[in-house]
Amino acid sequence: MPNFPRLRGMIAATFTPMTETGDINYAEIKPYADYIASTAIDGVFVNGTTGEFSSLTVEERKKILECWITAAAGRFKVICHAGSNCQRDSIEIAAHAASIGAYGIGCIAPSFFKPATVNDLIGFFAPIADAAPELPFYYYNMPSITGVNLPVDRILAEGRKIIPNLAGTKFTHNNLMEMEMCIDLDGGAFEVLHGYDEILIAGLSMGAKAGVGSTYNYIPEIYDGIFRAMEDGDLTTARELQKKSIKTVEVIIRYGGGVRGGKAIMNLIGIKCGECRPPLSPLAQEEYAALEADLDALGFVKK
Ligand SMILES: CC(=O)N[C@H](C=O)[C@@H](O)[C@H](O)[C@H](O)CO
Ligand SMILES: CC(=O)C(=O)O
């Protein structure tokens, strides 16, 4: 089994910049990357849920990743989300990511036809992971959206028997008992990346060392503070900061959630991400004004 280095700290799940006509705004990725590099963020997770992967073509996904790797220029890690409902598309995306120097591969479960068993899911992933055999492969667990709620510890334990580069999981779920079982598995053999930003302190207290999140994009200082406070054992500070993150997440939920509401916040902080692709609806001007007022009320710092 390859011994991959482990991630630490914040991995931001990127939004996909789009133009007024809904095309990909590739040119905006460079300023977005420069902004990321100016923060404490350690890496990006490209074309995930936040990046609207299921609304992108394979060609777009490849080109977006190329832009990120070029724009990052080694300043931070670039992880490629290769998941889709079509195994062949995922194989193509993973192979391309490896060929252009991505740091690692993440893959969500297929969710139109759902895997019925742990072995079905492992069988779906195996050729995708094998298309990028030198890179760490992470199972992106998010039952709330996929409806696939198979035991993650078993996916890891059984999966590694046929997927040598299975490094761990990106765990976007509230089941912290299951998370701890994954962290403890096989003497800590797997990397568990924390998912839900609003409960980061819980994941870190369970032993996670890195997280992948969408709200890291626009309040990185809050999460950087949480990582540091938890490292120092300062739970009071960590909890105060987590409350601030929760206040922000409450706001984005009012505007359609982490993707639609989060993309609007990116526009407000000056990273021109545009609107989401259908079926996520564009924000009306009045919504932008109300969102800005809600954020001002929280003392949100515009970059
Ligand atoms: C669906 C989604 O985007 N999940 C993210 C991580 O996995 C989180 O960053 C959430 O967006 C965040 O915790 C807000 O709920
Ligand atoms: C948040 C996250 O991990 C994603 O957008 O895929």
Write the layout of secondary structure elements.
Blueprint: E1 9-13, H1 29-37, E2 43-46, H2 58-72, E3 77-81, H3 87-99, E4 104-108, H4 118-130, E5 137-141, H5 143-146, H6 152-162, E6 166-171, H7 176-188, E7 191-194, H8 200-206, E8 210-213, H9 220-231, H10 235-254, H11 260-268, H12 285-297
Parallel strand pairs: 1-2, 1-8, 2-3, 3-4, 4-5, 5-6, 6-7, 7-8
Helix pairs in contact: 1-2, 2-3, 3-4, 4-6, 6-7, 8-9, 9-10, 10-11
Bound molecules: 2-(acetylamino)-2-deoxy-D-mannose (MN9) and pyruvic acid (PYR).
Pyruvic acid (PYR) binds at residues 13, 45, 48-50, 212-214.
Would you kindly provide a written description of the structure presented here, covering whatever features stand out?
- The protein is α/β, with parallel strands linked by helices and 303 residues long.
- It has one domain (9-238): Aldolase class I (TIM Barrel).
- The chain is 46% helix and 13% strand.
- It contains twelve helices and eight strands.
- The protein has an eight-stranded parallel beta barrel with strand order 1-2-3-4-5-6-7-8, surrounded by six helices.
- Helix 4 links the parallel strand 4 and strand 5 (137-141).
- The radius of gyration is 18 Å and the shape is globular.
- The chain starts with 8 loop residues before the first strand and ends in a 6-residue tail after the last helix.
- The relative contact order is 0.13.
- The structure holds 2-(acetylamino)-2-deoxy-D-mannose (MN9) and pyruvic acid (PYR).
- 2-(acetylamino)-2-deoxy-D-mannose binds at residues 13, 49-50, 172, 195-198, 212-215, 249, 258.
